[in-house]
Amino acid sequence: MAKMWAGMASGETSKLADDFNSSIRFDCRMYRQDITGSMAHAAMLSAKGIISSEDASKIIDGLQTILDDLEAGTLEIDENAEDIHMFVEEVLTKRIGDAGKKLHTARSRNDQVALDLRMYLRDGSDEIMDKIKALLSAILDLADQHRTTILPGYTHLQRAQPVTFAHHLLAYAMMLCRDLDRLEGCKKRMNVSPIGSCALAGTTYDTDRQLEAETLGFDAITLNSMDGVSDRDFCAELLGDLAILMMHLSRFSEEIILWSSWEFKFIELSSDFTTGSSIMPQKKNSDMAELVRGKTGRVYGDLMALLTMLKGLPLAYNKDMQEDKEAVFDAVDTVKMCLDIFAGMISSMKVLPENMRKAAQTGFINATDLADYPVKKGMPFRDAYKISGQIVADCIAKGLVLETYPLESYQTYSTLFEEDVYQEIDLANCVEKRISAGGPSAASIDQQIEYVRNIIGE
Hints:
This protein has 19 helices and six strands. The chain is mainly alpha-helical. The protein folds into three domains: about 90 residues, Fumarase/aspartase (N-terminal domain) (Fumarase C, Chain B, domain 1); about 210 residues, Fumarase C, Chain A, domain 2, CATH 1.20.200.10; about 60 residues, Fumarase/aspartase (C-terminal domain) (Ribonucleotide Reductase Protein R1, domain 1, Orthogonal Bundle).
């Protein structure tokens, strides 16, 4: 196949070099963005009198037929083409003749690929944000059902203090809200048009970059043509944001894996999101959560690959930058898949409140509240702390919990203990008494749910 860049060079390279140089196998996914961008470019060239309106109409109509045929499956992308840009231009020229050769006036593949990538990732960011919102909606629905479901809160993976399942779930909702905010900011910085930067130094044609940018939905244009073609900050920022998002999903996955184990048994995952064992018939493995946890490392790797590729590059465009796409495409694909899986997994899980409450009781997580009881009656905190520890030790020795420990036994430690101690250490009361902002009380949970609902527009 003749090379579109053949001129001074013969355009002949070895088959091995062609395959090594080609990016069509992965950049073909940007065909919509490439064609849409080319339509806007042709319209701008016509508006500025650089090409005739007749040629522009032929180009735009021809591009539309290519897009329609690709969408319908009646046109296949040629894997022998060097990249998606060359494929589209070659097909266009075959279909409409010499007018197709005028499309590349006042642009380069350097600014063209930068444009396509920004448009593709802009669309991908919107998809990811929609999927985060769907996951948040599933979390909110579950939290709403379990506002008063008590379970142990943990520190160091040791039972610490009572919280509600809603409170625990909403901690992850807050993380995802921050992910949304980061992606919104990333998209804003991404939504700047590089087209018209050409190879690196702009063009001698009197173009209208602003018109082309506005046609394609960009907020602004890049202000330096060398930066316009060589900037991949938006890729690195997006992958950084996706890495943080995957870290959040991985932490959530770890808890789901623990909660669904027999040792915890706080939840039961739907069979739709678990697998069995090939040898052990009793097994119900949380493979989907484990895969999300595992794929987090994959997204981290994509980020590191991109940063390492960029770190030593001189200005402006270098072929190394072709390596940006596989990393960023893989990360976007992985994140979208993980978010879909997570939303389904959360929506379909069965919560086991009795097991959560039993763990809360046997973990003596109301011991802090027990210590606070005599302190409110004048006992120094350190004395109350010591007594509470002794009472817990006695409960363990006798197979009791604080709620079943006899009043007369309490009173052997201090006469300050009276019948109302049981109200003080009731787990539901322990939760509701935590009235500080952001805590697990009913009023606080209401505020947290309302905050998240406002963010996702529910």
